[in-house]
Amino acid sequence: MGTTEITTKVEHIKTLQTMIDELTAEMESVKDEIKNEMTARGVEEMTVSCFKIRYKEVASNRFDSAEFKKTHQELYDQYCKKTVSKRFSIA
Fold first, then answer.
1. Which of 16, 34, 37, 42 sees the fewest Cβ atoms within 10 Å?
2. What is the pLDDT along the chain (91 residues), one digit of tens a residue?
3. Distance between CA 33 and CA 43 in Å, rounded?
4. Three-state secondary-structure class, residue 35
């Protein structure tokens, strides 16, 4: 594959990424409209046509690794596992 072909592919990737970003923004905007309507109606769940829509509060517990590292450095180091991966980026 030559430099010209790689350049063309990178330009295509950039165009596709722009389209993805625009569509993602549009999708989030439409989701926000639905969420706002559900909030205004005071409902967490609704059925429209064949779709069931839920907008609920969800509780979850997350492990605070930064705080654990501060208070238990040796234990943190004992169980910390280094991983290596490759990252593809275009600047």
1. 42
2. 999 999 999 999 999 999 999 999 999 999 999 999 999 999 999 999 999 999 999 999 999 999 999 999 999 999 999 999 999 999 9
3. 14
4. helix
**Residue 36 in tokens:** 């706002």
**β-strand partners of 47:** 52
The answer to whether 43 touches 31, Cβ cutoff 8 Å, is no
| Dihedral in degrees, nearest 10, Cα atoms 20, 21, 25, 27 | 10
Whether this prediction's pTM lies above 0.90 is answered by no
Q: Where are the domains of the chain?
A: 3-79
Cα–Cα distance for residue pair 54/33, rounded to 1 Å: 14
